[in-house]
Specification:
single chain; alpha+beta; about 25% helix; Elongation Factor Tu (Ef-tu), domain 3
Length: about 350
């Protein structure tokens, strides 16, 4: 009897403990059953199609015509009439150098020319009387020619102290100030023709053979917005950069408000057609440095799929691996959840 009285409470205790454990396990968050998330949205079927083959390259806008005005003589800068950004007309005086020494040189050269001319005239007047040797007359004629050439050279140097604009344009750099000493070859000013601008881009050596002279080009200038300008290939520089094996291609640009040298831009060269599997850019979502899409499997479950991307074609991008033609893909990759249930049949 004593044993029976002890066993009954023990059995009740064991049953209570087991019941509590069962209840606790049922309440634990990790053992609660969770419904997979439902994801709604459009889908599309991945297909292979023909796409334009585009070579894209970046570069900087530059003037098609630019000159660096330098000094031809050793002289101080006396006058500067322009600053950066000034618009100038062809022949306009932009700077004046101190010309006093050169003016004196012209006077001396002119005096020597007059002396040589007078001597030749005197000798010529008596040459008919046989009083002048032929060699003396020839020497006098030669001396006059030398004096005239010296005078012309001195006059040209004097004229070079007036620094003039070679064409209608814009001053882009002012490299000296009044009082500076100009030396032969030292740059003073830079002038460019702002009406004729080019986008100079660097193209990989493997792609440059696909580009042709005078072919149309879409040029997108970052500062002007996404709308492209209609450009034309003007020059393919006939040499490659040794370190990168790249080639500079110059693209003529039309006039456009706000377009000026120094702006960054991209050139898109159409070079043919290609066949590729492409998807909308919006279908791609990033995981760190990796790209993925969400494929809807036959059971309607979303599966994350890593993909390797290729060229971009407007709002579409090439998928080189990770996706097969015929698979159904979520159109908005940012909404995808791996293992989620696709809710809806919006197929496009």
């Amino acid at each position: 009897m004593v044993m029976r009285r002890l066993l009954v409470p023990a059995a009740i205790l064991v049953v209570s403990i087991l019941g509590y454990l069962w209840w606790s396990a049922g309440r634990h968050p990790e053992t609660e059953r969770r419904e997979p998330p439902r994801v709604a949205g459009d889908t599309f079927v991945a297909t292979v199609g023909e796409v334009p083959l585009i070579v894209e390259a970046t570069g900087i806008v530059a003037s098609a015509r630019e000159v660096v005005l330098a000094s031809k003589v050793l002289a101080a800068v006396k006058v500067l009439n322009v600053r950066e950004g000034a618009r100038v007309a062809a022949g306009e005086v932009l700077a004046v150098l101190d010309d006093r020494e050169l003016a004196a040189d012209v006077e001396r050269a002119e005096a020597e020319r007059r002396n040589a001319k007078s001597r030749l005239e005197r000798l010529t007047s008596v040459a008919g009387d046989g009083l002048v040797a032929p060699q003396t007359l020839e020497d006098a004629e030669r001396s006059l020619r030398v004096a005239e050439a010296a005078r012309e050279a001195a006059a040209a140097l004097l004229a070079s102290t007036m620094i003039r604009a070679p064409f209608d344009g814009v001053v882009t750099d002012r490299l000296v100030e009044v009082g500076d000493m100009a030396t032969p070859g030292r740059p003073l000013l830079k002038v460019e023709d702002g009406r004729a601008l080019r986008l100079e881009v660097t193209v990989a050596g493997d792609d440059v053979g696909l580009i042709r002279m005078r072919q149309p080009v879409e040029a997108v200038i970052d500062a002007l917005g996404p709308a492209p300008l209609a450009g034309t290939v003007a020059m393919i520089v006939p040499r490659a950069e040794a370190s990168t094996q790249s080639v500079v291609v110059k693209v003529d640009l039309p006039r456009a408000p706000g377009l000026k040298s120094g702006l960054y831009g991209r050139a898109r060269f159409p070079v043919g057609r290609a066949v590729a599997l492409t998807v909308p850019v919006a279908a791609i979502s990033a995981v760190g440095a990796l790209d993925r899409v969400f494929v809807v499997d036959p059971d309607g479950v979303l599966r994350a799929r890593l993909v390797r991307l290729g060229r971009r074609y407007g709002d579409r991008v090439e998928v080189r691996s990770g996706l097969e033609p015929g698979e159904r893909v979520l159109a908005d990759g940012a909404r995808g959840v791996d293992g989620g249930v696709f809710a809806g049949e919006s197929l496009r």
